[in-house]
Amino acid sequence: MANIIFPSNFLWGAATAAYQIEGAVNSGGRGASIWDTFSNTPGKIDNNDTGDVACDHYNRYISDIEHMKALGLQSYRTSIAWSRIFPEGKGQVNQAGLDFYDRLTDKLLEASIKPVYTLFHWDLPQKLQDLGGFNNRDLIYYFRDYAQLMFEKLGDRVNLWITHNEPAVYSHNGHIWGNHAPGIADWKTGIQVSHHLLLSHALAVEAFRQSGKPGDIGITLNLTYFEPASDTPADQAATIRQDGFGNRWFLDPLFKGAYPADILALYESHNIAPDVMADDLARIKNSLDFLGINYYFRFAVSHKENDGLLKTYARAVVGPFTAMGWEINPYGLYHFLTRIKSEYANIPIYITENGAAFDDVLVNNTVQDDRRIDYLEKHFAATAQAIAEGVDVRGYYVWSLLDNFEWSFGYSKRFGIIYVDYETQQRYWKQSAYWYRDFITAQKNKSS
Ligand code: IFM
After folding, report:
1. Which candidate among 21, 167, 296, 302 keeps its CA 20 to 30 Å from the CA of 28?
2. Number of helices and strands (H, E) in the chain?
3. What pLDDT sits at residue 1?
């Protein structure tokens, strides 16, 4: 690691998301989101945890920014809670919500930390879900209007924007598997939602470009590295299907203006293909200045005749594993960075999330998380390798700044480089935080 030098303008950051850290769900005029509804439904979340309090970041953002500053972060990625801005998703604007993100932005800039905001990290206003959620085409316009307002209010100080976080997880987990909010289990809905997410992204980008605000806008995709479990033709074909379902379904429309023919045919044969109107795909094509990549793990894929519509079985097989049971595979990150350039476009890329949960134990006010340090180091090396081969990677955001509400796992999984004691809301730096601080300092010194 000592020898690796990243470009001098490379941004080192950390990421979080509103519902996972803010808490204060009833403060400042915030409206309910689908995650409030879902997490407060008994049995949905491990230990019946909710995001009601989370890391109480809404009330502690100033001291959290002090931690970021002490870490030497150059950038911070978080999301805006739509229901703080529009408690009902549309219509009446909530000034207190705008004020919160205004203050957050100013404090970040005061600390010389570049804010990057994701407009939608899954916490849809409940009132919009009551209208059918992203299955309802009207949502594309409500999202566009919300995005437009944020560009207008913050676009003088924020110049990196992300429309959606992981549309695959939102559509699949939330609408096909049902283990995320809004808890729907229906293929047709899930696939339609994925189309409306991409289309709403495109409309928000159009609004950004029309706003004349300086800066760049993109979308963040979670890309999973799928490899065949064996070299049989059946497993290889299964891998192509799995990659098509999870990765190409989102990449192809963004870069090629078309859904992948093999997956579209599969969906058509099951009557679950999305309703797509003329021009939708033309609007989605090239609707990004950069691609955000969230990368975590590799899955080995086998053909399984009786396994659902995809007839695939994807699982983690080769250790070491994180506390999520995810296989640590830095090569997969290199694979995507180089694959985007060779198969899609030589577009700027930000690694908007990468990190690991481990069973951290607080001892003497810190956590000896050597495995997380090792994880980060290896993924940095994979990134450096891709940059050396000409991939235009511009930044890296560790997931996560803080331990936080890990969706259906509640607080049982700790991804932070800063440990949160949820009883006292005390923050404790894990050893990975000290390591990351020193790494960033060394990079700054090398490039100056
Ligand atoms: O916590 C999530 C985040 O909200 C989206 N990307 C993956 C992380 C870890 O599961």
Report:
1. 167
2. 16, 11
3. 61
Q: How far apart are CA 41 and CA 383, in angstroms?
A: 40
Closest CA to 86 of 151, 24, 142: 142
Please tell me the total number of residues recorded for the chain in this structure. 448
Cβ atoms within 10 Å of 162's Cβ, excluding its own: 25
For CA atoms 347, 352, 353, 354, give the dihedral sign: positive
- pLDDT at residue 367, as a whole number: 99
Right CATH for 11-447 from 3.20.20.80, 3.30.9.10, 3.30.70.360, 3.40.50.11600 = 3.20.20.80
Closest by alpha carbon to 291, among 329, 331, 253? 253
Residues with a catalytic annotation lie at 166, 353
Q: How far is the CA of 277 from the centre of ligand 1 (A)?
A: 31
Q: Distance from the CA of 5 to the center of ligand 1, in angstroms?
A: 28
**What ligand 1 atom has the least distance to the C-alpha of 357?**
9
Mutating to test ligand 1, I would choose from 35, 49, 121, 294 the residue with most ligand atoms within 8 A of its C-beta, which is: 294
Instruction: Give the residue ranges of DSSP H helices in 212-297.
Output: 233-243, 249-256, 261-269, 280-284
pTM of the predicted structure, to 2 decimals: 0.98
Residue with tokens 């930044």: 395
The alpha carbon of 294 and the centre of ligand 1 are apart by a number of angstroms equal to: 8
Residue nearest to atom 2 of ligand 1 (CA): 406
- How confident is the model at residue 447, as a pLDDT? 74
| Distance (Å) of CA 174 to CA 121, 166, 219, 223, 293 | 12, 11, 19, 17, 20
**What is the amino acid identity at position 337?**
L
Residues with CB under 6 A from ligand 1: 17, 20, 166, 294, 353, 399, 406, 415
Low-confidence ranges of the chain (pLDDT < 50): none
**Confidence (pLDDT) at 66:** 99
pLDDT value at position 307? 83
Query: How remote is the CA of residue 75 from the centroid of ligand 1, in Å?
Result: 18
Task: State the Rg of the chain over Cα.
Answer: 21
CA distance 306 to 312: 8
Q: Are 433 and 411 in contact (CB under 8 A)?
A: no
The single-letter code of the amino acid at 399 is W
* First and final C-alpha spacing in the chain: 18
